[in-house]
Design goal:
With about 100 residues, the protein is mostly helical. It has 2 helices and no strands. The chain is about 70% helix and about 0% strand.
């Protein structure tokens, strides 16, 4: 029993205080780790949602291109619009007697 070291009350109190301090630090680190785990999970969820949004945007762009192509096709297939009715106007020319005889 001579190999055992004898601790007095002050040394035991110091060791006890260090143990409590270390326990407190471990508890804080555990809380931080839990918060980090939540953050990692949130980032993973956001990454998945971003991939979904990117897929949706790609699909919307493809549909927009298809609509533009259909609109162009529709315009190409439209029958030509009838020309606006032109006003019929009469032009009267006054000719001299000689010119009138030549025009006959």
């Amino acid at each position: 029993m001579e190999d055992l070291k004898h601790y007095d009350d002050a040394a035991i109190a110091l060791i006890d205080a260090r143990g409590k301090s270390n326990t407190h630090r471990i508890n804080e680190l555990t809380e931080h780790q839990v918060a980090l785990d939540r953050l990692v999970t949130s980032v993973e969820v956001l990454a998945t949602k971003q991939e979904t949004v990117e897929g949706d945007v790609k699909e919307i762009k493809e549909l927009a291109a298809l609509l533009q192509a259909l609109m162009g096709l529709e315009k190409a297939m439209e029958p030509p619009k009838p020309a606006e009715k032109q006003k019929k106007e009469t032009v009267r020319v006054v000719l001299s007697d000689e010119a009138e005889e030549l025009s006959r």
